[in-house]
Design goal:
globular, 26% strand, alpha/beta, 37% helix
Length: 224
Amino acid sequence: MLPLGAAVAMLLAQGVVVGAGRVVTFRAPDGRTLNALAMDASARPAPAVVLVPMLGRPKDDWQAVAQRLADANITALAIDLPGQYGPTSGWHTDVLAAVAYLASRPEIRRDAIGVAGASLGANLAVLAASADPRIRSLALVSPSLDYRGVRIESAMQQYGGRPALLMASLRDPYAARSVRALAAEPPGLREVKWSETIAHGTALLAREPDLVRTLVEWFQRTLG
């Protein structure tokens, strides 16, 4: 009999269903093994969205959103971030690895990949999108112009004319100020959705079901 840790590792490698969705693995650029929660669309090939969590929060924070995307025939891939401490400026390469994983899958439309991120995850989504033209659409929840040195103004300009949905609470001052600044960055479609709920990042989505619907409908429109 395999030790518990080895058995779990084998299940992960095989893409075994864990609760709702499947846990899949792929490689980061530096060789690390990345774990992600995948929820598959029923029709193939399908659009796909990478979901990036907040600092110190797990991929499971996105589970309800991932299910809603899958129900809308959009495959969702929620990833974990490297950790809670240390420099964050290079973490967007994990987002790029997730995009590359999706693009390698025959069941995914390579021309219809988006990224949604919350808080730091939103900033990492912008950095990844500025570096990879395969990312066709963004949804940013509670972004910051500068999060622990991860600045995104110039990256948003490099993202160019591709569409971006920007969401924040009006009672989250820095996120609201950041959304206003990012929405003013030409060119391209920049759609803004405000909330009055006192919450940040994925907590905002958990408390505002209408925002989840907006996010899902956004990717339906922009990924096709």
